[in-house]
Amino acid sequence: MKQTGAKGSYAAPAIERAFEIIEALASYPEGALVSEIAATLDRTLGELFRFFVVMERLGYVRKSETTDRYTVAYKLLELAYRATPAQDIVRTALPEMQGLASAAGQSCHLVVPNAGSGLVVACEQQPGTRGFSLRVGAKIDIINSCSGQVLLAFSGAARAEQIIVEAEKEREAPVDRAWLGERLALIRERGHDSRQSPITHGVTDISCPVFGFDGQVVAALTIPFLELIDGSQKVHLEAAREMLNAAVARISDGLGYQAERGAVGPGDALDSDL
Q: Which of 57, 131, 153, 234 would suit a FRET pair with 11, their CA atoms being 20 to 30 Å apart?
């Protein structure tokens, strides 16, 4: 490893190349040939082949015996759970999510902040034959989504601004802070968010914050409430919201949250000039 450019800036080409490969493979859910990744990264086949061999041996990618296509292995997800607070959050949340899905007859998913996006780290399918859900690992628009705005609304000012700046980098576009500030103030006042899904007809997203032992928001638990045409869903929207609110209270309690420590309340999360 050698130092390049500004003081304190170092280059590690092999490490960078390995992560470039993993990020490129993420765009190929059915897997990709080495030649396809080489074309995507504008590299030669010979240049990348040895990386795939080593990464497969270490368990970070896997090769299909029938198609020769590579996919990212679950080892990365396992490491992410072990190395981040997500493991404790998911372990605490899953029993409550299972109970919620069964009682409400609706699917639910748990979202944590991840740089400038939200990340689904757990999902529980409703037990019936009809439902709507997001998959684990799905990337969420943290600026516009119900889950994302709940995370921002109950984050401290500095943390929220950091997430927004990262989101602007990912989107390559500025965020309307005046509009967002108004939305987040309303969510804090309500204690939750509830609105029609911007992408799916007949679905109303309901999201509530989950707090950790230090009083900080650590996740958002969301029900994409599917209202059936014949009205035969197990419970109505307001009942589902009450169940969701009770579930996040129990999850927060399981994570050691004490209300008297003071989670972010109205006016605390973001400055008016966001």
A: 57
